[in-house]
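Hi U.,

Before I forget, here's the chain from the pilot set. I'm dumping it here mostly so it's searchable later in email.
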Amino acid sequence: MSALVLAAEQGVGVALVPSRLSADRFAKGGLVKLFSEELTTNESYVLLHRPQDGEREDLQELTRWILSECRAG
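Structure:
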């Protein structure tokens, strides 16, 4: 997803991206919505990590942040 967004920001083409996760890029002008309508899907995502990284505080904080951002909408 990151490479797709970066390519769109650099003018390579257009990208279909989650609006909630790209809100900052829209606000800063790095990306512009082509349409006012938003696509509603039944897609879901999982956050994965290696078993040995489960206790890492930085990953736990990242997980909390991602969950809070996704619930904000």
